[in-house]
Amino acid sequence: SGRVFAADHDGRVLAVDLQSGQELWRIELDTGFVASPAYRAGVLYVGDYDGTLHALDAANGAEKWQYASGTEIDGSPNFFEQLVLFTSQNGNLYAVHIADGSLAWQYETGDQLQCGPTLAGDKTFLGGCDSFLHIVDVNNGQAVGQPLAIDAPTGSTPSVLGNRVFVPTYAGEIFCYQMPETTPLWRFKNPQLAAEFKNSVAVADGLAVAASRNK
User: Is 190 a residue whose pLDDT tops 90?
Assistant: First the structure.
């Protein structure tokens, strides 16, 4: 659409022209945002501090609908067919209908979810504060096999490249699994570099690149 969309801690959502940097519209809501907005087909989707997912008209910021999870949303939404997928700190993954924000299904983990839902085909991957990697079939919201132990909490969104999934943790480790067998391929940990990984792993050219809190 030739626009850049952003949301901030003070509850502002705005659209900026991609070429000129000129602000096109702005709204101010009585909340705040940690997660980045996601865009699809003329609609902006963004979750707030209070656990509400807002669907906003990308042309002017007018609210189309909202869905209240009740607890802070830290990750950007994702999309599968006619569903919006998003996580909440209450430990749930939600799938709501794009048309009206009604609930299709929800999947519950054992602790907070601070990551966004990674999508590969019809499976989503969730790294949880319960120290597990959850694999969910987004057709029905059902778990695919047992959650995989990663031995520490994570707030990072898992990364997927081909048939491999990469999950960093707060214990300074990175796990790599092969799908769909969920086979553990390797586990990185360097005692001299041991510090929290707070962001996703970037994967390209045969390398996994991660930034740690050890500076």
Answer: no
